[in-house]
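REVIEWER CHECKLIST
Item 1: Sequence provided? yes
Item 2: Single chain? yes
Item 3: Sequence as submitted:
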Amino acid sequence: MPYSLYRYLLSSVIIPFLGIIIFLVSLLLIFQLARVLNLLSGQGLSIMDLTQFFGSIAMSFLPLVVPLSIFFSVLYGFYKLSGESEFVAMRALGLGNVKLLAPVLFFGLMSALSLYLLNQQGIPRAKKYFAVKMGEMRSNQFFSQLKSGQFFTEMKDVILFAERFDSESLKMENVFVQIQSQNNLKRIIMSDSGRFFWDEEQGSRVLKVEFFDGNLNSLSPGDQLDKTLFETYQYPVLQEDILIDESHRANAMTHEELQKYLSLSDKELKKMGGSPAYRLRALVEYWDRINTPFLCLLYTLIGLCLGIGHFRSRGKNVAFWAISILMGYFSMYFFFVGLARKGSIEPFLAVFVPSFALLFFSLLLVRKINWLS
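Item 4: Structure as written out by the authors:
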């Protein structure tokens, strides 16, 4: 086959691919911008910092965006070639399906390989950078409102007063805290000093507060007062707060870090603050990184089949089948992954069963094309 024809076939797919991937990433960035805009204000970030920040967000979208972009670009490119009879003309020259589809299948294979390599190092690091940066900005915004000699009410059901607060060391002196729990139990803590610190819990870093040399007064609804003296006392007032740092989650681990985490014994996992439920999530993430490149190949094949198959004579059918395939796959995927995270099914099966169903469907389409030949 002449190289010019190779280039023409590839350009019919690559140009739409780049356009679709830019559109989808930009769309997702707009939604993400609405989430982080309030945090970005007042942070004093440079242009370089902003570029790196939004670049890390964009890279984190690639496992979702790349397979979809391949699917729609291949479908569009070959549907257009078939609609304008260019594909028929190439077939009339004696070129078979294999020769005509080889350049695009090679493009799908290279895309899958690139995404696989990025999934091992680049994308997890981008996600970790984004999570760390978000944690820093949330912390800066949170602690910027904590002032010496002023009441602080940004924590849920907690009123805090510190005579002196150091924003760099996060240490406090002469601390008063009132905590109102859901069962109407009121607790008052008075201590000589205290500090905020990050603690490992369930695989994530959680911001907590620790008090030193003080007393804890608990007042029940019946006005019964219990007083306890302590040398140190920790209270997870921010356990469910937005300050939870997700940079230690499985999707932010490199391939080596994830393998090391999965090799931990139950005892070691518990010691570092993990749990069996989190191990299941990590296993889902591990198999997802293998499955996503596989999806690139499947979407390439299905896009080719829909573009040049018997659907080409009815444009509405192509759109219907494309949407149905995506909805069917993602419905199955989220259903099985939900079961895997509950321990009802092996993570490997949860990730790959929908993909094998998609593979079976793609093979049916390939047989249909061969029959039309």
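Item 5: Key structural point noted by reviewer: The longest helix spans residues 3-40.
Item 6: Recommendation: ____
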